[in-house]
Amino acid sequence: MTLYTKLPTRRAALAGAGAGIGLFMIGRPALAQTTKLRFAHPHPEADSWHKAALIFADQIKAKSQGRFEVQVFPNGALGSDQQTIGAVRGGSLDICLTGNPFFTGLAPKLNVLDLPFLIQSRQHAAVVMDGPIGDGLRRELEGSNLKALATWEIGWRNLTNNRRPVASAADIKGLKIRTTPNPAHIKAFQLLGALPTPMAFTELFTALETGTVDGQENPVTLILNAKFFEVQKHLSLTRHAFTTGPVVMNKGKFDALPADIQELLVRSAVEIAGVQRQMNEDTEGSSLAALKKAGMQAVESPDRDSFAKIVTAEVEKEFVSKYGSETLEAIKKAAV
Q1: pTM of the predicted protein model
Q2: DSSP assignment of 59-105, as one string?
Q3: Sign of torsion, CA 208 212 216 222?
């Protein structure tokens, strides 16, 4: 018996070859086209935002089986806070992460999250941001062509400056403090007698170095990672506000994605929100120790009540007069 009993016809041979090529292509997913999503944020690579963004990128690539790949750009490499938000809205950038205060011009109700002394703990923040309250606030951004996947955190804001220790509210008078553009932040510092100066995070180190502003307010983790200790002498653990950070995507691009990828992006961003909060909580103590070792003089137990008595009621009153009390009261009731 011969090896081939019959030679195939030309048509059969071509059909067989076509089927073989089809099977070869199906069996080689590496040949499938990968969709790349660019993700920008303003924080340094040492910060929890960048570490969490890399985890997010790894998870999207793995769980989409390589169909989607997230490229992360830290350090404001693709623009300032406002520039990256604008780029995502316009579609030239896919995803960005920055502080909630920079979104309040588009969705003023989000200003509620930046009211002073409102968030009581990280557990409180998680209940608010990962539940129905957070869902409602994130939907506020959809009218600006933004899909908020989840809300991460910056953390507890603490005051630094180059002029004097701040142990009570009286000590802040006359200080020129960089703030976010958020109305609640600006109003609070005005009430305290400071000179609030809004600017992008990407401009802050130079402004501190040149003396354009006397100080700023951010969590100890970010003060360390951004190396503000090189240009600031005094640190006061005021914990006067808790700042969150929406992870947003261009809504048109999100809506055009397959349903499974939409679900993957949202689920992964929400899961990693908890991971990123824990990163900050785990490193707060060591960050403070490192700042003190670097030469910063820390007031670890300032008179927080002296700040709260001046700013809390007045800033809340202004918010309620514009947007009502429903969301504010819901956040207060969610405290655990």
Answers
A1: 0.88
A2: HHHHHTTTSEEEEEE-TTTT--HHHHHHHHHHTSSSEEE--GGGGTT
A3: negative
CA nearest to 331, candidates 168, 121, 191 = 121
Rg over CA atoms, the chain: 25
298 membership: H or E segment, kind and range:
strand 297-299
Pair of tokens at residue 47: 């910060």
Question: Which among 331, 335, 327, 329 has a CA at the least distance from the CA of 140?
Answer: 327
Alpha helices in the chain (DSSP H): 10-26, 48-63, 81-90, 122-129, 132-139, 183-191, 204-210, 220-225, 251-256, 259-293, 304-323, 326-333
Q: How far apart are the C-alpha atoms of 17 and 333, rounded to whole Å?
A: 68
What are 116-168's pLDDT values in tens digits?
999 999 999 999 999 999 999 999 999 999 999 999 999 999 999 999 999 99
Nearest to 238 by CA among 154, 306, 316, 157: 157
- The per-residue pLDDT for range 240-297, each reduced to its tens digit, is 999 999 999 999 999 999 999 999 999 999 999 999 999 999 999 999 999 999 999 9
Output the pLDDT for position 14. 31
Q: 203: exposed, middle or buried (C-beta count within 10 Å: 0-12, 13-18, 19+)?
A: middle
Classify domain 33-333 at the CATH topology level: D-Maltodextrin-Binding Protein; domain 2 (3.40.190)
Burial class from Cβ neighbours inside 10 Å (0-12, 13-18, 19+) for residue 55 reads middle
